[in-house]
Specification:
Oligomer: single chain
Shape: globular
Radius of gyration: 17 Å
Structural class: alpha/beta
CATH architecture of the largest domain: 2-Layer Sandwich
Number of helices: 7
Helix content: 25-40%
CATH class of the largest domain: Alpha Beta
Order of helices and strands: EEHEHEHEEEHEHEHH
Distance between the termini: 40 Å
Number of strands: 9
CATH superfamily of the largest domain: ATPase, nucleotide binding domain
Length: 201
Amino acid sequence: MHRQGRTAMLLIPAGVRRGRDLVPLAEQLLEEARLAPTDLDGVACGVGPGSFTGIRVAVATAATLAYAADLPVVDVGSLHGIAANAASDAPHVLVALDARRGNVFCAWFERTDGELRLVGEYRCCTTEAALADLPADAVVLGDARAKYESLAAFSGAADAPVRPDVIAKLGEARFARGEGKRPEQLKPLYLRLSDPEERLR
């Protein structure tokens, strides 16, 4: 939660996989910040890519909270929240999450005027395509490092989490630009079909 330059966060315990478990945690965060849902301007949600189940739960919970409080929502790419784990002097950052079948969910960021900015778009591609033209001084973040040697050859970390403070700040900026939408318009960003959908095809 980001408000007037201050961020309040609550780390979710391992094993929380259902929306009904997230709502009490959201209520706890509001209580600790001494805020009511009606004090909020909107709800920002990291919409993926990543775990299909995790994204689905996050989006459903965020939309439900926003609908109940009559608030707008904004969708924020989760890879932005991972890229923010890079050192402040890292000039190039590749975020790569394991998408299975030899593919990765990835995004490439470059530091401009002290800030990491997305280059191109989020993609689901092979590791070779993700590494194409990547500078030698790039930092690679994300769990795909633990699976692919070509990614592990770069400096970085495999356990870089999605930083909720970054999602909140990016969401605040988007709300300021008037990009809020209705809760029912909040959609997951999957980039590829799920395994059951692939089998159905």
